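Help wanted!
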Amino acid sequence: MKKIFALVEHRKGEIRDVTYELLTKGRDLASKLEGELTALLLGNNTAQFAEKLKPCAHHILSVDHEVLKDFNAESYQLVLSDILKKESPWLTLIGHTASGMDLAPALAQELGTPFTTDCVEIDMENDNLIATRQMYGGKLNAECKMQNASSYILTIRQAAFPQEPANLNADVVSFTSPLAQEPDYRKFVEYLEAAIGEVDITKADIVIGVGRGIKERENLRLIEELADSLGGVLACSRPIVDAGWLPKDRQVGSSGKTIKPKLYIAIGISGQFQHITGMKGADTIFAINKDPNAPIFNEADYGIADDLFKVVPILKNKIAEMKSN
Amino acid sequence: MATKITLIPEIKDAIIELGAEDTYKCYQCGKCMSVCPWSRVSSISFPTYRIPQEVKLGIVASSEDKKELAKEVEEVFRCCACEGCLKECPHGVNLPAIFRAIRRILVDYGSYPEELKGTVSRLHNTGNPLGEAREKRADWAKELNVPKFTSDMEFLYFPCCIPAYDSRAQEIARATAKVLLKAGISFGILGELEVCCGESVRKIGAEKVFQELASTNIKTFKDAGVKKVITTSPHCYSTFKHEYPELGAEFEVIHETQLFAELIKNKKIIPKKPLNARVVYHDPCNLGRQNEIYEEPREVLKSIPDLELLEIPNFSHQYSICCGGGGGGVFIGWDMQERIANVRIQQAFDVLKAQGTGHKAQDSPDQLTIHEYILAIACPYCLQMFEDSAKVLNLSLQVKSISELLAESL
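Answered by r_m:
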């Protein structure tokens, strides 16, 4: 029987979305391979989390200790390597998040376990595990055939798999923390909250996101005007913040804000997964990009594959015309 | 227009062959970027973790658009080979070696920054990166009566090109020579006979020029009967210690701060004059992280009466941040507002300033005296980078070498 483990990611008392995505995929694999899924739960006062996770896995392996209250990759690694050595799961799934990637490579290295990061699909071919990961900003899919081993670790891209409800009833097994205090060389200090700027893009119904396709800072005005005419707010993908054209609080994506507006218009945004993670929850997504193969169109409900400098002025005029009528 | 990616496996193979085999070990976790000193310059985006992937696909610096290509090439030359990433990488990926391999190809094709082309050609033509005349290489030592090296001497003193020629940096070579003379060390210099150690040019990717320089020095040292070398620059130190032996060199090398510490310990020199200064020592990458020489420079500073040595919390020893001068960076004219050295010197200044301006001198503990703020360095590149940054940021802080502080105190 194949044992599949999935690491629960939580922050400030909330289970993160990626956890349910891992558990959904984990259950899927478990049923295909006649295995069982265990949710690996590290934290302090884990009972509250365990209750929520019971329907999602066959087992919950819980390590409840004060030292695990807040995420510290070094503490997690010490605890997880101990668990994985004792439990020898066939596959361990970890979210491809900032925390997951702080932890997983060093863990795999310590255990000598075959490891692939940022997977968007997991398949079996005969007895081989095939992990699909995207390369080069999502323009290529690489199928990685893992070397034959008794155990594997994968990190899974956020939003690559859906979160589906389940009705299992996991038993909770407690595991004693091998760790009594945080390692000297790395300690959790505090959470730093990003300052809320003048506009809170997470509260807006209409958000216009702009990306690298805008080319010059001066061109932002064009998009701003469109946002104004629609009563929406201006947001952006990371390159715009990196270039210093818009403040960090306008950034949508895994290293920025997660937004769920009624309408999201992506202009000149190719749609790298880091951005998609932050806006996929929008009710309606409309994309303008001159590259018809841009990944943003996979997410969009509507799209125009053309030059934004051609489309946006027309759109703006059309809106003005409709308004005046 | 659809995005077209042209994969060029030949380029991948060539890069791997030139020293980028670690490419296949990269998990793309991005820890390299978290410690890359460029990540601390907020206006710069330098996604280091993407490079191994681009090598795997053979698409590194391959844009057809000229502007894009120039940006990609610039990125390849941003790495200052500080090896902070190598210390942090869970899988031991030597990213600086990958950058060096890519650079070797770009240099072969003449596709690299203009400033570096000048540096490479000056090194090829004159044996130093400044393009100065070889016969002037010993001018810094004229007033000090530093002897010419002869085979009966214990040490060769190798000052590095910058201290040999640059008027400010010459002071640090003179300070070292003064200390050595005072201690009665048996040493001499080779002056016009020696050339640059070649460290920078190798990191830039001009391997042939490195080979020329290294073989010139190795032959010169051998002919002169050199058995032990004292270096001022950690870059020369590292190159002599780790790279020259592969090319047939058989001499020992010691960094000047190691020798100073030993001389102080054995009471060959005794720092006597108090130096009423508050000092932060900046660990140079090539001395600290890359050769684990952390304590000797500090021991020298601590031996100076009244000198108060402070540490930059969380960013000293192996976590020191590069000045940006490594990997050829000292020869690239990065925008003065966007330099790593600005970040680093600000850290030092903040630590010094947090202590206030008053200081209790040891001999008169009740008396508060105003004293100097000093950033102590042990590398000529750090000197250059930090002095520039101190001016740009208008910081009232002096940049001095350990040798200068020690010489002042003797």
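OP: Thanks! One thing I noticed: Chain B has three domains: 9-112, 119-261, 269-409.
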